[in-house]
Amino acid sequence: MTAPSSSGYIDTYYRRTLTSSEDYPRATGHIEADICIVGGGLAGLTAALKLARLGRSVVLLEENRIAWGASGRNGGFVAAGYATGLDSIARHVGQHQAHELYRLSMEGVEIMRTHIDMLGIREASPVSGIAKALRYHSGGALKASSEKQRRDFGMQLRYLKRDEVRALYNSPKYQEAVLDEDAFHFHPLNYARALAREAAKQGSSIYEQSAAVSAELDGARKRIRTKEAMIEAGQVLFATGGYTGRVVPALRRAFLPISTYVLLTEEAPDLVRDAIRTDAAILDDRRAGDYYRVVDEGRRILWGGRITTRVGDPRNIATLLQREMVTTYPQLEPLKVEVGWSGLMSYARHLMPQIGQLQPGVWYCTAFGGHGMNTTAIGGTIIAEGMAGESDRYRLFAPFGLSWNGGILGKAAAQLTYWAYQATDAIREFGQR
Ligand SMILES: Cc1cc2nc3c(=O)[nH]c(=O)nc-3n(C[C@H](O)[C@H](O)[C@H](O)COP(=O)(O)OP(=O)(O)OC[C@H]3O[C@@H](n4cnc5c(N)ncnc54)[C@H](O)[C@@H]3O)c2cc1C
Fold first, then answer.
1. CA 66 / ligand 1 centre spacing (Å)
2. C-alpha 73 to ligand 1 mean position (Å)
3. By CB neighbour count within 10 A (0-12 exposed, 13-18 middle, 19+ buried), where does 104 fall?
4. Does the Cβ of 247 fall within 6 Å of ligand 1?
5. What is the pLDDT of residues 289-342, one digit of tens each?
6. Does 245 sit in the ligand 1 pocket, CB within 6 Å?
């Protein structure tokens, strides 16, 4: 059974468990605002809410439905960090700025938690705890790095040795893990729709089924056209993630759309709880490794993994992921898959978000990769602060600009790199047998 307002969303666990019923109109006619935001994912919505709270009049255009893209169909993991590690960020910007960026990423988690608490978004169903697990022995490196993170950033991290991991996750694969007790997992579509509702309550005008099709960005007043409307605004923010089209060519050239996949199993509480004996979510540290959690109070599993550079859905997504699940938990062989889906993430070559100003009054906030929950929260917040002249924290991301994605060669390189990582992971895991 799906709720009446769920039409226009693809079939996912989140659509099936949507709680709210509001629809937003199409944009029509001539509309004036201080700020026009293009894209109704979590980056655009967080910015819209913040700008409305700062007293700006905001128009938000969404091509489909609110959080129709990655924001409404992801794994629901919310943790500090970025799509690339602290060491690689430090190589780019030095250790001091890398630490500042990492603290911002922690602030992103807190922004989300505060939204959920202050706005009473119970339907976001947050559950504490995400474990990062290894399929090989790190020889003390995992424990040491978690202790360093605890010292440097005050994070609540608990090291789990083999027996402790396997008591929670009944799989022969895992060798050790770190449980992040500051992280949580949740229902991203219900959360996103609650942000939209609050932004509208604070005066923002939200439009669905209203794709921006062209933009005139050079004058003092920017003009964004949809099929049925023309929006005139002093400033524009593009927050179109992995679904960015050709309206602003500089943005289209600067990212790679990467697909990733999720499945939802049938309801089978005994089987599920024999395998996963905790409500804490888990991800393994392999590149594009598995990430999964129990949902519906432990009756089902939501399992994500794999990346490809193909934009269309392969026919066998569910089979591929199910195979991964059964390799990890042989006891789940009989567990059937109820629905599988994919979504597009936006990756820059440097693997960091792209947050900044293209030209006076034209802003972008995108490329959050597979770590987009906390980072869209911080991205949306600091870009709104920048647009409102409240802070220039967005400049921390200046070293990670809109570099060219490499076109077709960039795609091929991304896929090859992923396969190479998969091979390295497999060899490392094989070494444990
Ligand atoms: C399957 C999957 C699992 C993931 N799991 C996790 C996870 O567990 N944890 C995590 O941190 N991250 C995860 N991610 C990544 C995260 O979901 C994204 O990084 C994040 O949601 C990106 O948000 P966004 O607002 O930038 O883009 P999106 O949410 O994709 O929103 C962009 C929106 O812009 C709209 N749009 C595009 N063009 C136009 C236009 N011309 N006019 C109007 N609107 C337009 C689109 O319709 C879309 O709704 C996952 C992603 C996927 C796909």
1. 11
2. 8
3. buried
4. yes
5. 899 999 999 999 999 998 887 656 656 778 888 999 999 999 999 999 999 999
6. yes
Domains of the chain: 23-123+186-255+350-402 (3.50.50.60)
Q: How far is the CA of 334 from the centre of ligand 1 (A)?
A: 32
Q: What is the pLDDT of residues 47-62, one digit of tens each?
A: 999 999 999 999 999 9
The tokens of 384 are what?
Answer: 């709104």
Q: Of 63, 130, 307, 311, which is best to mutate to test ligand 1, by the most ligand atoms within 8 angstroms of its C-beta?
A: 63
Q: Are 18 and 8 in contact (CB under 8 A)?
A: no
Query: What is residue 307's three-state secondary structure?
Result: strand
- C-alpha–C-alpha distance, residues 153 and 140, integer Å: 20
- CA-to-CA distance for 383 and 44, rounded, in angstroms? 10
Q: What are 152-197's pLDDT values in tens digits? A: 999 999 999 999 999 999 999 999 999 999 999 999 999 999 999 9
| pTM score, whole prediction | 0.94
Q: 29-38 and 58-61: which strand pairing?
A: parallel
Strands (DSSP E) contained in 67-143 are: 77-78, 127-134
Q: How far is the CA of 76 from the centre of ligand 1 (A)?
A: 12
CA–CA gap between residue 167 and residue 160 (Å, rounded) = 10
As to burial, measured by CB atoms within 10 angstroms (0-12 exposed, 13-18 middle, 19+ buried), residue 151 is: exposed
Ligand 1 atom nearest the C-alpha of 341 is 1
Nearest CA to ligand 1 atom 21: 71
Regarding the beta carbon of 290 and ligand 1, being less than 6 Å apart is answered no
